[in-house]
Amino acid sequence: MKVLVIGLGGVTNGGKTTLAEKLKSMLPNCGIISQDDFFKPESEVETDERGFKLYDVLDALYMDEMVTSIRSWMKNPTSSGVVTEEPQSTRDNLKNVYILIVEGFLLYNYEPLNELWNRRYFLTLPYEECKRRRSTRVYQPADTPGYFDGHVWPMYLKYKNELEEDASVQVDYLDGTKSQEELLSYVYSDIIQELNKLRE
Question: Record's InterPro entries (predicted)?
Fold first, then answer.
C-alpha cells in the first residue's frame, strides 16, 4: 500500500476547497482533511489591540491535532474515517494507492507538517480580487470592518514571503484567477504523474 499526501494551500478564497472536492471526485481512494476543522474556539483565539481576532496565524489552530490526523491517515488510510470513494475509471494498478488532499490557508509554515507532503500547491490571488471574493462570504464570527486589510491580507503576505524565502520547500504556485477547469486540469495531471512515479 502506498500513500500520497497532497497539500493544497494558499490565499483565503483562492478556490482551495472547490479544487480539493473536484480532485477527490476524480482520483482513486482519495480523502480530504480541511485545516478549517482545526480552528480553536473563538474564546481561545487572541485579540490584538485593534480588537481584531487573530485567526490567520498558526496559534489560532490546533496544528498538533492536524498533524496527528494526517499521520493516522497515512498509517491506515482505509479506516481513518476520511471517506474515500472509488471513481469508475480507476485502473487496477492504482487499487493500493491512497491519496490524501490536505487543504488550508496555512499549511507550509509549520515544520512538523513539512516532512509529510509529496506535493505542495499554493493558490495566489491579487489583493483586489481576494478582497472582492472575501466580501461575498459569510464567516462565523463575521469579519469586522477593516479586518481584511488589518489582519487577513498582511498575514497572507507574511507567510507567503516566509515560504518564498525558504529554498528547502518546493512549492508549485497556482494563479487563482485562472478558471477552475484550467486549475483542475493542471493539478490533476500533475498528481497522475506522481502516481505513476509511485508505481514505477
Answer: P-loop_NTPase (IPR027417)
